[in-house]
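BUG-93 | component: ligand-complex export | severity: low

The export step for zinc ion jobs runs without errors, but we want the raw record kept on the ticket for reference. Input record follows.
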Amino acid sequence: MDILACPIDKYSPLELHVFEEKEEIVEGLIVCPKCLRWYPIREEIPEMLPDELREEHDEMPFLKKWKDKFPKQILEEGKPFNMKARVKARKNP
Ligand SMILES: [Zn+2]
């Protein structure tokens, strides 16, 4: 798989975490170590979208599904969505 640069800051190389693999990576995670953004790989497709095209309700289920395999730093500080931000949002709607 070709891993592109981060669409926000163009940083490269990005970190790849494989969650499920057949002939291709079925589900996984791409992390930009510079800005801590994460990008899901779903159904073999890396979704490298800028923040304004991402939907929390679409991506939080992915984060929750794989939270045991996400790097801890990304769970807590990852952008554009993470577990801490969600907890905070609930306390201060
Ligand atoms: Zn980045």
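Assignee comment: Attached the raw record above. Residues 56-65 form the longest helix (10 residues).
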